[in-house]
Amino acid sequence: MNLELVSPPRARSQDVSGFGVFSDGDAGQAHVMAHRMLDEGRHELGHRWLGNWLAKHEGQGSDWTHLQWHMAIFELALGQWDAALARFQEHILPIAATTDDALTDGPAMLWRLKLSADRPVVLPWEPVRKTAARNLSRVSDPYVALHCILALAGAGDVHALDRWIETGPKGSGYCREPLLVQLAIGLRAFAVGDYRLAAVVFTSSVPKASELGGSHAQNELLRAISDLSWQRANEMADEAA
Question: Domains in the chain and their CATH numbers?
Answer without folding.
Answer: 11-108 (1.10.3450), 124-241 (no CATH)
